[in-house]
Amino acid sequence: MKNKLCRTGSLLLFLFSTCLFAQKHHFNVGIDGGYTSSILHADLSNLVDSKYTTRPGFGVNLSGEYMVWKTFFVSTGIGLQQKNYQFERTGSRTGWYTRYTNNFLNIPLTVGAYMLNNPYETTGVWLKVEGGMYTDYWLSMKRKGRYPVFGELQENGTFNYTEVQDTYDFDKNENQLNRWMYGLTGKAQVGYSFKKFNVYGSYSYQHGLSDINKDNEDKNQKATIRSYMISVGASYKFN
C-alpha cells in the first residue's frame, strides 16, 4: 500500500513541478467533465440466466500536458470517475438484480501527439490522440438490489421481491475487493484553440487489467472493469 501511495504522490509531484516551469515551456492545465459508461467483464458460465450490463455515471478530470518534442507530449492528472454496472438475472429469473454505484480516484499517465495543428502555435481546430496506463483507487461502492423472498411462494409459482440497499464497508472488506487497480487507457480529443484557451470534446476508454478480487487464484474467473467517458472541457495554455 505504501509503495502505491508513493507512486501516486510521484505522479502528482510531476504535475506540480511542471507547473512551476510553465512560463518557459509549452504546458497547459485543463478540466473536463461528462458521462461515463462501464461494465464488469467476468465469466458467468457457472451461473445460468445471468449477465452484467452497463450503467451510466459521471466523471470530472483535472489534467496537465507538457510538450516534449515538436507535436509530442506527456500528460497526467487526477480524476473522480463513476464506474457503475449491474448484475441481473434473465429468463425465468427476470426481475432479480444488483446495481453497483462505484466511485474511483483515477490517475492516468499517457503519451500522445497532435495529429491536426498545434494549439501552442496556431489558433483554430486541432486533433490529438494519446495512450498509456492508469491507476484506480476504489473510494466507495453502493449496492441496490431486488431479490426474491423464497419463503413467499405465490400460487402462480413466482416469489415476492424485496429491495435492499447498502454501502460497502471497505474497512472490513469482507469480500476482499482490490481497492488499487490498473489498466490501459486511450483518448481522442478534438478542440478549438484561442490565444490562451482551448475548448474541447473528448472520448476516452479504460481497459482494466487487474482483478477486482484481491485473492482470486482462478485466473479464468478474473473480473475486470471496462469503461468509457465522453466529456467536454477547457484548458489554459502556458507558452
UniProtKB/TrEMBL annotation:
UniProt keywords, alphabetically: Signal
Pfam families per record: OMP_b-brl_2 (PF13568)
Highest taxon of source: Bacteria
InterPro entries xref list: Beta-barrel_OMP_2
Record has Signal as a keyword: yes
Span of domain Outer membrane protein beta-barrel: 21-212
Signal peptide: 1-22
UniProt-recorded name of the protein: Outer membrane beta-barrel protein
